[in-house]
Amino acid sequence: MSEDTTRRGTIAQAQAADGTGYELRYFARKHGLTTAQAMALIRRIGNDRAKLNEAAVQLRRSLSGRPA
Known about the structure:
Blueprint: H1 10-13, H2 21-31, H3 35-45, H4 49-64
Helix pairs in contact: 2-3, 3-4
């Protein structure tokens, strides 16, 4: 999904573009995940940024062995 720059507002800003490489790499780097892990989260959760960020934090904690 490429980002439509003509869309403005909270709906467009709340969605993550899973097909955009730089966004995927940024999301993965931001949360300390691999791009494969980030893509798996996007496929499982969808493209809601808030839900993805929450799921990424939980995944990162589970990988590091810290309690959620």
